[in-house]
Structure to design on (410 residues):
């Protein structure tokens, strides 16, 4: 069980950020296996060339990556982007990097925290989504506030509760004062660091984090009848039939990113707002794997920042109809990326399936496609088997490439 509220001090005490280790199981991830870079057969040397080739060749089950015409990929940009991604010096006090919310060994999420934590333990109200296959997301963020990876990084860079820089220009000046970055920017762009070049490098690296070829892909697109278990096949029949999941997570004839990249009110955001306005008397707090205590809520609030309302897409458009609408996430590799929903309050896939099976909370304005399904426990088992079959085999190599050089934890 995870903390579903952004408690600043307590979250740091009971859910420390991932500090290392690449084998075994992740206690905070409900016993899920860690993504182990050691299981990747590739040598770490020459990873940039492999990453470039991967981003240029369509992966099984996925469409070609849409590279912008003004930012063609190169090995130099990928190498520079990775260094920027891991560099804590890009935060105001040298403590925070992109990789601290998007941990390679955890499929580029952070399983320890329901919602992200920024500089000095400042709470962020949303869950950090995976970056695997982020190349296919347009728009970006849970509320769609940005449309391009080239500019997406600016928000976290200057957000007071994330990397907390006073300005993006100050970061660029800091980078240009570092000799190692001069060499990398010259190799990638034949020019010094600038805000647009920094965005191009980060975007190119993130577009190389692509993974297809799941058991589902080998079965559905590759014609291998042995690739998918019978429960998973039954689960797909429900997914694409009676459960109606493909209405928002479509499966195309040649490829599937398993999101419509649109915004929907599932009732979940409204439901969580009711909890925010009417908090419980106590809240469960995990203090160690398998050890959970019920703690008086007033005591928690005495060391916490107030929880903010989250109106979803409305915060971008200020259109009343957009209240509590959030972007549909992709379901690829979903079994590896708990916790779930925009605020990370659902810890397991089963909890997500049960929410949708119940038809959501019946909120005002809820999308009519969210309706009671009446599925049996065995139906939910089959749906879960199908979701597990969406895991790609190449993620360990993405983590190995990410860790092929020591991170910049200066």
């Amino acid at each position: 069980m995870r903390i579903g509220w952004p408690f600043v001090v307590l979250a740091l005490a009971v859910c420390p950020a991932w500090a290392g280790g690449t084998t075994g199981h992740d206690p905070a991830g409900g016993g899920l296996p860690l993504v182990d870079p050691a299981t990747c057969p590739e040598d770490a040397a020459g990873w940039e060339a492999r990453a470039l080739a991967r981003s240029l060749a369509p992966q099984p089950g996925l469409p070609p990556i849409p590279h912008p015409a003004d930012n063609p990929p190169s090995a130099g940009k990928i190498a520079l982007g990775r260094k920027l991604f891991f560099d804590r010096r890009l935060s105001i006090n040298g403590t925070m990097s992109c990789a601290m919310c998007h941990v390679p060994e955890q499929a580029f999420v952070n399983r320890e925290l329901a919602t992200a934590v920024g500089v000095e333990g400042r709470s962020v109200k949303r869950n950090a989504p995976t970056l695997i296959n982020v190349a296919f997301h347009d728009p970006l963020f849970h509320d769609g506030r940005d449309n391009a990876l080239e500019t997406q990084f600016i928000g976290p860079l200057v957000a007071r509760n994330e990397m907390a820089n006073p300005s993006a220009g100050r970061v660029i000046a800091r980078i240009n004062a570092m000799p190692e970055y001069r060499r990398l920017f010259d190799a990638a762009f034949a020019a010094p660091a600038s805000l647009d070049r920094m965005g191009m490098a980060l975007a190119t690296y993130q577009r190389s984090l692509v993974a297809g070829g799941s058991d589902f892909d080998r079965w559905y697109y590759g014609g291998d009848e042995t690739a998918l278990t019978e429960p998973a096949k039954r689960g797909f029949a429900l997914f694409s039939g009676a459960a109606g999941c493909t209405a928002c997570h479509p499966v195309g004839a040649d490829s599937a990113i398993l999101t419509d990249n649109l915004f929907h009110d599932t009732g979940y955001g409204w439901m969580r707002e009711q909890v925010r306005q009417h908090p419980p008397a106590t809240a469960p707090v995990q203090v160690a794997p398998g050890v959970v205590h019920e703690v008086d809520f007033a005591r928690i609030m005495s060391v916490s920042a107030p929880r903010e309302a989250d109106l979803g897409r409305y915060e971008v458009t200020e259109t009343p109809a957009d209240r509590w609408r959030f972007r549909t996430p992709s379901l690829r590799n979903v079994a590896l990326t708990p916790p779930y929903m925009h605020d990370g309050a659902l810890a397991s896939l089963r909890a997500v399936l049960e929410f949708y099976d119940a038809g959501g909370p019946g909120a005002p304005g809820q999308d009519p496609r969210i309706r009671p399904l009446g599925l049996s426990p065995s139906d939910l088992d089959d749906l879960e088997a199908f979701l597990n079959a969406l895991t790609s085999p190449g993620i360990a190599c993405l983590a190995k490439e990410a860790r092929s050089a020591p991170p910049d934890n200066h």
About this structure: The radius of gyration is 21 Å. The domain at 10-211+394-402 is CATH 1.10.760.10 (Cytochrome Bc1 Complex; Chain D, domain 2). DSSP finds 16 helices and four strands in the chain. Confidence is low (pLDDT under 50) at residues 1-25.
